[in-house]
Amino acid sequence: MADEKVKSDPSAPSAEYSVGDFNSTTKLADAPAMIDDAEYNPFEHRQIEKPNSTAGSLIHLLKSSLGTGILAMPVAFKNAGLLFGAIGTVVIGLICTHCVHILVKTSHQICQRTRIPVLGFAETAERVFEYGPPKLRRLAGFSKAFVDYALMATYYSAGCVYIVFIATSFHDVINYTTDNDWNVRIYILLTMIPILVIGQIRELKYLVPFSALANLFIVVTFGITLYYIFKDPLEFDDKPMFNSFGTLPLFFSTVIFAMEGIGVVMPVENSMAKPQHFLGCPGVLNTAMGTVIVLYAVIGFFGYVRFGDLAKGSVTLNLPLKDDLAVAAQILIALAILFTFGLQFYVPMDILWRKIQHKIPKNKHMISQIALRSGIMIIMGGVGLAVPELEPFIGLVGAVFFSSLGLFVPCVVETVFYWPNELGKFRWVLIKNIIFGAFSIFALVAGAYVSIRDIIALYTDDDHDE
């Protein structure tokens, strides 16, 4: 998928878009100020080498959404309760789906207005401000930079979660089977050895075998996890329908972390042979997100019913290590996340390198890439060493990065695009986006506060046993 290129047609401004390029920094020529939008259909002007089919795009979108996040859903339900967790998961899923929808729709419309066949996430934000209200046009460059840097921060922070997840899984398995008492930080340091190797892979085609193995391992792990969840009768009576208001921010931020895949949406849509099939009913987006919502709700609900308040940051960590099958599941999911790290790391590094490569002599590109990648991965490992607790870490990342990028930015982009005369009757678009924007700010502030509070408590509690 990631090697495919999307090129503009000869009549449009020269541009080239790579599905692996999440920021698409190609400079695009300015379009005339006065254009009849109806005259230009961007879909007809896209020239795509090896385009994705509708079914292939659906698979890519599903693959991007089904990762470590789904394994954290039982702990999300622990923070919400059975009834509120089920309803909240569906509601947050619908909000996330809607925000993706308005981002893609706005991108289509601004492409039409500017006569550009294809735009990425950051370029959509930039062009919306550039052609928006006069007082906001000076923010066009800032909006593009904000999305680019937010994407980098999101993927780097998610990579930190990956490192902690891998280390925690191996910590539990090896310590249990060998009677070792090594601290999880030792395993983080050991995890950094293969991470530093995989993170040096700069060609997506070399990451394909790793991704294929990761997908196989994840499917097997899901099957084993479901077996342990349903193999014995489930007890519902001792699980609260609602937990407490104090833990709700962690629920929201964990679910947002689990569901948000905003960074891959535009590349998937822009690589489709029939992009008109992405939105609509059923459409690729609705089908993928509907499947994701159902799977997340099922794993969260029944995972919490099975493990209750003992639910951990990944449901695989709750599996009984006395069983070889459970040990296999933990090892497989740890390897799956390890093999996924290269693709996860590719995204922010691609954005960063495109921003700085012109400042580095070409004969020093190789050594610069090695040094830059190694330095960033060492910093990520350092963050993992500082916060080796999976549950609050996931909440913090979901609250700060995924809520702002996946919820807040699409609402702002749509509002600016329609401002001031196309906001609908009673300005319902503005009201709706204010509500969703306020929710994203609440998730950011409250989720970050609770996560940081819990992290501080973990390391100030004299009774805490690492």
TrEMBL record:
Positions of transmembrane segments: 55-77, 83-104, 146-170, 182-199, 206-230, 250-268, 280-305, 325-349, 370-387, 393-418, 430-452
Subcellular location: Membrane
InterPro entries cross-referenced by the UniProt entry: AA_transpt_TM
Predominant cellular place of this UniProt entry's protein: membrane
A GO term for molecular function: L-amino acid transmembrane transporter activity
Region Disordered, residue ranges: 1-20
One Pfam family per UniProt: Aa_trans
GO cellular component: vacuolar membrane
Membrane topology: Multi-pass membrane protein
Keyword vocabulary terms for this entry: Membrane, Transmembrane, Transmembrane helix
Domain Amino acid transporter transmembrane: 53-452
Annotated protein name in UniProt: Amino acid transporter
Organism of derivation: Anopheles darlingi
